[in-house]
Design goal:
GO terms for molecular function: DNA-binding transcription factor activity, RNA polymerase II-specific; RNA polymerase II cis-regulatory region sequence-specific DNA binding; zinc ion binding. The protein is mainly alpha-helical. The protein is built from two helices and two strands; from the N terminus they run H-E-E-H. The chain has a two-stranded antiparallel ribbon.
Amino acid sequence: CPQCGKSFRTNYELTAHQRTHTVDWPCECGECEKSFTQSSNLTAHRHIHTRERPYQCPQCEKSF
């Protein structure tokens, strides 16, 4: 990263990281005022509002 010197394996990871240095956080939550640089992070965040826990551990059956 030209701004902080951090290294990344892929250009995709570098691009995602570079957004943390800017105000370009295009994925906004409709329930609260949080914004995210990637839609996948917004999707994970939305589970907080829905209390949905779509992932279940196959060993202990606890949901996340």
